[in-house]
Amino acid sequence: MPHATQHADVVSVADAELDSALRGGPFHVALRAAIAARGLPLQRVQHHLSRYGVKVGVTSLSYWQQGARRPQRPESLRAVRALEEILQLPEESLIRLLAEDDDRSAAERPAARSYRSLLAASDVLGQLLGELDAPPDGGLHTLGHHERIGIGARRELRSRESHHIVRAQREGVDRFIAVHHGDPGCVPELMTVHALENCRTGRVRSHHDTGVLVAELLLDARLRAGDTFLFRYCVEDGTGGVSREYVRGFGSPGGQYALQVRFDENALPLRCHRFAQHSPAAPRSGRRELSLTGHHHSVHLVEPRVRSGVVGIGWDWE
């Protein structure tokens, strides 16, 4: 019976690897070990999930067990709970590992903007806009917005250049309020706002603790309702710590948005990706890897027509 003994040895090894992975993680190793221990091809796993009313592609399952992607959306988390039953695992075992992976990642990263800090920044922004007598609706509809982010040799957010194409929604609009939110550790008092084209810099306000800077840009024309206008400005930052992402939020639908992040040749990231969120409190979705261009060391995303929510680009240094 050598074959039966050999088979039993293989099973025992697979079970031992699974037990070890379920205790120590990470999630993708435990998932891969569970699928191997049960001897199920991914197509069968997908079929079982469909019987639970959960739709997950074979490619997504493959990415999950390789660690290339993580289940984050509500539908994906439903799939993870179903996988615990399909693969005969203890209840909450995979979900627990996902949470532990998140905690571990957060501990390894320097402080980033939490949802609470974003809410605080939002409150501060309202105060600063009040100081500039800026109405909630600035009277301009964005037809196109191109942002170019410069990451310096110290891995810091060095600069942000914005090119706007707008249409006036009422008579007499003659200014635009620019908002810049620096990275953790930044010093907004040391940032500089430059009017580059068809505008000039007016009043500037900032809040040290939240890293928020607000600048009044005076347009070179007083617009009539329906008029279009183009203008450009730049914020020189360079005051924060290591930068790991750039995020742009939209309160209402608009036109095209393009974001380009360019890296100093002496500080190139290991990998880059785009992402989206329905709101700052929502889980991130729409993750897609981005490849650096050869000569200019940049990545970009284009949203043909923005919707309410958040889009951004993130990157890993090592």
List keywords for this structure.
318 residues, Immunoglobulin-like, six-stranded mixed beta sheet, four-stranded antiparallel beta sheet, 31% helix, elongated, XRE family transcriptional regulator
Task: Give structural notes.
- The protein has helices spanning 2-24, 27-38, 42-51, 58-66, 74-86, 93-108, 115-131, and strands spanning 140-151, 157-168, 173-181, 192-197, 199-207, 212-223, 228-236, 245-250, 256-263, 271-277, 285-290, 298-303, 309-316.
- It has 2 domains: 2-108, Orthogonal Bundle (434 Repressor (Amino-terminal Domain)), CATH 1.10.260; 116-316, Immunoglobulin-like.
- It has 318 residues and is α+β, with helices and mostly antiparallel strands.
- Residues 1-11 and 105-112 have low confidence and may be disordered.
The main β sheet shows up as:
6 strands, mixed
Which fold name corresponds to the CATH topology of the largest domain? Immunoglobulin-like
- Please tell me the total number of domains: 2
Distance between the termini: 50 Å
Order of helices and strands: HHHHHHHEEEEEEEEEEEEE
Strand content: 25-35%
Q: Estimate the mean pLDDT confidence.
A: 85
Write out the strand line-up for the largest beta sheet, numbering strands in chain order: 4-7-2-1-9-12
Compute the gyration radius: what is it? Answer: 24 Å
Low-confidence stretches: 1-11, 105-112
The CATH C-level name of the largest domain is Mainly Beta
| Percent helix range | 25-40%
Number of helices: 7
